[in-house]
Every structure is written in C-alpha cells, then in structure tokens.
C-alpha cells in the first residue's frame, strides 16, 4: 500500500516551485531496492553523491525531487555490512560451518538522505511525473537519475512463441507417448525439408535482403519499493505526458538498464517507430547484462559503478574528493554528457558495457551485413574512424592502445584478444571450482564434528543451541578454530581469493575489449545508417546525438558554500 503521506510530501515539495515560470533544469532521482535486504547502502550513497555533484556544479538550488526506498516510513529499509563484527565470532563461525549463513554479515537501518519527498513506488512516481507535466514547458529540462535494481524483459514475440509451444506440447503429449513411428517419419521429413531449404538459400543468396535484427528486449524492469516494478513501457507512458519538445535526460545505473534506451520509441517499443519526444539517456550497461555497483560495503572509496565515473567526469572530482582531469575530447573547454559517458567507457573498472539511446536507435535501424557496401567491425580501422566524433575516436584509440592493438582489422584483433583472455580465465575458474569442492568437504567434516559433540547445534533455533552459544561459546569457538579441517578450509579460502583476484583482473580486461568491440560496431552501424534507413530516421539520429552532447551546466562550475 502506498502511504498518503508520501504523496502529500511530494505535492508539498512540488508546490514550492509551482509559481516559478522561468526556464530551468529540474532533477528527479528515484532509488533504493524492492525490500530492505535488497536495498544496499551504496544506493543511498549514490543519491548523496549526486547531491554533492549538483552542489559542485552550482545546480543545488534547482528543484530536485527525490523518491527513495520506503519514503517517510521509519522502519529499516537499508542494508549495510557490519565491519565491527568479528570474523571469528562464534555465531559467524557456526553460520559458516553449519549454516544458514545468509545475511550473517549485514545490519539494517533507515536511509539517511536529505530532502526525500516520498517512497520509490509506482503510484508516487506517477503522481510526481503528472505534477511535473503540468508545470514544465519546452524551455525546461528534466534530468532523471535512477539508482536501484533492474530486471530483464523478453521480446513479445518470444513470449508468444513460448505460449504457443506450451499449448502445442499439451495437445500433442499423448501422440508423443504412443506413436514413435510418426516421430521418426516427421524427423526424416524435417531433414529432407532442411536440405531443400539449404539449396533454396544458395539460389537466393544473390538476391538476399538485409537481415532484420532480432527484436530487442522490449520491457526491461525497474524494481521498486515493496516489491513493485515499472517496465520500460510504464515509464515511457508517463514520460509521454511531459511536453514533447522539452528535453528529458536519463541516467540509469541498474542491471539491464540499456533496455531503457527504448524510451526513444513510441510506447517504449521499437516496432512502433520513434517517439516525438526529445529524450535521451545514458545507461550503465547493455540490455542483457547485469551491472556493477549494488553493495552493502560501507567503504565508498571502493565503489566501482557507472555513477562514480560519470559524475566525476562532470565535476573533476571523485566521490571521495580526489581531483581528476575532466574529459574535454572536443577541446571546447567543457565536459558534455556524452564526454562523461565516453570517459566512463574508457576508465571504469567494472563489468559494465555502458550504452546510450543513440546505440539503441542504430541497433534497430541499421545493420552490418545483408547489403553490399556495409561496414562491419572487421572493416579497415581507417574507414571506421574517418568520420568519427572526438568521443568515438578517443574511446576506440584509447582502448586499442591499452591492449596494444594497431592492426587495420581491429575487430579481428579484438576477437582474438578476447578469446585468449577467456581461455586464461577458464583455467582459473576451473582451479577455483576444484578448490571449492575440496573446501566443501572440509566444511562437512567440521559440521560433523560439531554436531557429534553438540547435537543441538544442528538447529539454529534449538533452545539448547542458544544456551551453548551464550554460556559455552568460547569452547565451541576453540573447537572450530583448532580443528584440522577448519585450518584446511581457511587455507583453501585464501588460495581461492588469490585466484579470484587474478580472474577478476582478466574479466575487467575482457570487458574493456568487449566495450571496444561494441564501439567499433557502433561506428559501422552509424556509417551504414544512410544505406539502411530513410531520411527521417537519419535526422532523428542526428538530433539524438545533439541531445546526448548537451552540457549539464552551461556556466563555469561553482562550488556551493
């Protein structure tokens, strides 16, 4: 249930700005997880970092509506790691050896964000956007930041096909059980048809039409408080209520966030064509991959996620206050949103492949095969870079230099480098699996020892177990620490941590190469767009690039206070 106080709070905040008619930027932040144990402290700190970013840019006096977690509910809604808890505390040891260990390292509290106007729930979000739609005009801008969790949707065609397959399976279940002969006949007939189709394809290859890309994920999800969710289509429907010619800029850092690139299409669905609204967005990763960042770790210096790099590029300062050089790839004296995105692609040590709305347009309307004269990732690098923007050139040349790739067929070099690193990582992963198997055996032996000596420890809720922990905790603890199998368990743990560090480093390199491949493909798709799409789409692409190239602030940065 949505609390009325949350809605009233939002309305009261909105009312403070209702009388303002002067054109201005307006900020909307939505964040937090669906439940407390999935709402990590890093999400809170992302919002606070965004607030500091706006202050550093002199934008903290602008309207900033924040919807987070459970709003004004005083119940704990945030998870964080308890760094003061001793790793050799008897409860921690028992959880590790006998279980269950879920959540043993975490504590919970209410969020500590100034200026939150309501809960991150669909009804509150919808009401907020409705109020903005009534007040804003074409001279305003809305900057929307989402820091939370996301889910992956499915193409409508896939859902329909699966439903039809399920119905067919139900209808044919009896036939499959009783008529094996018919199945063999059908198989042979199917094989013959496959051969016929192969011959037909050979004959038709000369007249082959451009391949239409598989329909992208249409309805990726944002998970909201109280286990609610809003999909791309839900968000697009509400954003459609805003003035069509008023720019909306989204920065979304949840898993599968790239699916929200579909907000540039009518109803959030590429098959409906491009929307009339001026919208663009920057996303932590592509539509079908999880993103880095959600962590109960309280050490903000260790955060590695899209927001950290994107906002430090805009301000020249990291989230912990260290100075960095602001990217200015076109040498105009300022850092645009697109330059901040490119900086993130170049420097982020994360598992992400960042993407943006223009990437979504290209991957629907353009292609790299199916017609003569189309470029691909394997086209000469000189041809791909001939018309590249400063950002594109910086990313492609920067990532190439990182891995000492200089060949004309840059795509081939990237593929070879990815394969080599994946082979190395597979060996490490195999070693980790072997050690994990050994570790499980050691853990079983420790658990056996404990439950032979203290049978009640088999149940965490047994009253005798509670007494043992309270009155004989030190004895139980020593029995674990001095056990040979436990010593072996910890040795294997250390060995696995060392292997994991090597594997993670390899994985970060693999991801950077995947980013390079993605940008090579993007260049090819952009060059091919005039061949594949009409003038209307080409114009929309140019306008989208212009939107993505905006400055967050057009005046020199001002440090608040």
Could you write a compact summary of the structure shown?
The protein is built from 17 helices and 11 strands.
Number of strands: 11
Number of helices: 17
The CATH class designation of the largest domain is Alpha Beta
Mean pLDDT: 87
CATH architecture assignment name of the largest domain: 3-Layer(aba) Sandwich
Give the overall shape. globular
The structural domain count equals: 2
Outline the biggest β-sheet. Answer: 9 strands, mixed
Low-confidence stretches: 1-21, 159-212, 555-561
What is CATH's topology name of the largest domain? Rossmann fold
Distance between the termini: 40 Å
- Percent strand equals 5-15%
Helix content: 40-55%
Structural class: alpha/beta
Rg estimate, integer Å: 27 Å
> What's the order of the H and E elements?
HEHEEHEEHEHHEEHEEHHEHHHHHHHH
Region (Disordered): 147-218
Organism: Blastopirellula retiformator
Protein name: Caspase domain protein
Keywords: Coiled coil, Signal
């Amino acid at each position: 249930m949505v609390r009325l106080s949350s809605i009233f709070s939002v309305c009261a905040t909105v009312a403070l700005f209702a009388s303002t008619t002067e054109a201005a930027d307006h900020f909307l932040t939505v964040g937090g997880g669906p439940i407390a144990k999935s709402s990590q402290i890093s999400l809170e700190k992302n919002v606070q970092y965004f607030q500091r970013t706006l202050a550093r840019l002199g934008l903290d006096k602008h309207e900033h509506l924040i919807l987070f977690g459970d709003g004004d509910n005083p119940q704990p809604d945030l998870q964080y790691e308890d760094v003061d808890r001793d790793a050799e505390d008897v409860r921690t040891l028992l959880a590790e050896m006998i279980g269950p260990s879920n959540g043993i390292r975490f504590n919970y509290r209410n969020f500590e964000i100034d200026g939150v106007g309501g809960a991150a729930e669909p009804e509150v979000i919808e009401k907020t956007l409705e109020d903005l739609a009534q007040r804003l005009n074409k001279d305003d801008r809305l900057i929307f930041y989402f820091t939370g969790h996301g889910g992956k949707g499915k193409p409508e065609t896939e859902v329909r096909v699966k439903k039809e397959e399920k119905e067919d399976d139900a209808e044919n279940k009896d036939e499959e059980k009783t008529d094996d002969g018919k199945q063999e006949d059908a198989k042979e007939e199917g094989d013959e048809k496959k051969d016929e189709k192969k011959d037909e394809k050979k004959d038709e290859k000369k007249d082959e039409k451009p391949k239409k890309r598989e329909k992208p994920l249409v309805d990726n999800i944002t998970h909201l408080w109280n286990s609610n969710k809003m999909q791309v289509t839900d968000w697009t429907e509400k954003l459609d209520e805003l003035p069509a010619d008023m720019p909306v800029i989204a920065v979304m850092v949840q898993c599968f966030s790239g699916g929200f690139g579909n907000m540039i299409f009518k109803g959030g669905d590429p098959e409906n064509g491009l929307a009339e609204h001026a919208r663009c967005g920057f996303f932590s990763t592509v539509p079908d991959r999880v993103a880095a960042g959600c962590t109960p770790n309280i050490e903000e210096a260790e955060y590695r996620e899209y927001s950290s790099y994107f906002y430090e590029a805009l301000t020249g300062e990291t989230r912990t206050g260290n100075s960095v050089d602001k990217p200015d790839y076109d040498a105009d004296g300022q850092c645009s949103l697109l330059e901040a995105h490119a900086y993130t692609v170049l420097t982020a040590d994360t598992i992400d492949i960042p993407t943006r709305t223009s990437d979504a347009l290209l991957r629907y309307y353009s292609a790299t095969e199916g017609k003569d004269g189309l470029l691909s990732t394997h086209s000469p690098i000189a041809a791909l870079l001939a018309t590249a923007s400063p950002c594109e050139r910086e990313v492609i040349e920067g990532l190439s230099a990182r891995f000492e790739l200089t060949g004309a067929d840059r795509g081939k070099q990237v593929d070879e480098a990815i394969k080599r690193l994946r082979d190395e990582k597979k060996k490490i992963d195999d070693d980790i699996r072997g050690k994990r198997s050994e570790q499980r055996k050691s853990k079983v032996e420790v658990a056996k020892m404990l439950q032979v000596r203290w049978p009640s420890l088999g149940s965490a809720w047994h009253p005798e177990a509670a007494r043992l922990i309270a009155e004989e905790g030190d004895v139980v603890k020593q029995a674990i620490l001095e056990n040979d199998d436990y010593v072996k368990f910890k040795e294997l743990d250390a060995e696995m941590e060392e292997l994991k560090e090597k594997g993670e480093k390899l994985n970060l390199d693999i991801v950077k190469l995947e980013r390079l491949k993605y940008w090579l493909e993007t260049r090819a798709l952009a060059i091919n767009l005039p061949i594949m799409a009409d003038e209307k789409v080409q114009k929309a692409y140019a306008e989208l690039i212009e939107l993505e190239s905006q400055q967050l602030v057009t005046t020199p940065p001002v440090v608040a206070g």
